[in-house]
Amino acid sequence: MGGGDGQELSTDNVKGIVLALLSSGFIGASFIIKKKGLRRAAVASGIRAGVGGYSYLLEPLWWVGMITMIVGEVANFVAYAFAPAVLVTPLGALSIIVSAVLAHFILNERLHALGVLGCVMCIAGSVVIVIHAPQEKEITSVREIWNMAIQPAFLLYVASVIVVVFVLVFHFSPLHGQSNVLIYTAICSLMGSLSVMSVKALGTSLKLTFEGTNQLVYPETWFFMLVVATCVLTQMNYLNKALDTFNTAIVSPIYYVMFTTLTILASVIMFKDWSGQSLGSITSEICGLIVVLSGTILLHVTKDYERIPQSRSLSS
Fold it and tell me: Which residues does the chain have with pLDDT short of 50?
């Protein structure tokens, strides 16, 4: 199995790929289980999560979906400790296939030929990215990651994300959140890009600790843990709103593409993943990402992926 610039994938990279694939399967299924729970909760309470309801917290099926998602996220968390983000993140495309197919059969959210083609394009683009992905760089201390995180370029990225998220949450969300799928998914994706950088830092710290080099004594480890918790809670809240308001088959791929694009950008800035790679490999990764984006656009323009009418969203 080849890696970037003709290198063989390392053992750590292979572990990261396997964990990422398992993660995508669990996460893709969790979308469907959680949405079934959201529908049941909406029927019971009469208030949907998309308009501020939180009755889903009392719905057992929603918690089954949440546990399924947590299992997937744990696998994903560990994957980032073994492989670079530009290798792990694109494999999330599998979750699109899982959620779209399950939504077709379980939620009666129709997936036609163009939708299938869009999913295939997402997978094909992800495969190209994986083939040309860089090898994981050896890190010996969480302080190395901290020094990467306080680079001016990455600090500028973090500041930009925070400003955009605040504008989306306090201005655009109240006005257009119920009619434009990009609002909620953009908030999830922007916060997700920061959470992945912190997850990778935290995962690497724990990996080094288990290997005998204690990283828990450093305050940087606990700071990254706090960032992960903050970002994940924000993602959960707005992902629930997106799932309750819009069709699963469109939320999943749009969220995936935005999240993947922003995560790769953040990783390239912070970890300098493309440093040392040939222009050919970098170009191939970008082309793979364009194919993924094109597949998502194809899904988006399919008529079956319109916003769910409120009467339908309240049916089980």
Answer: 1, 303-316
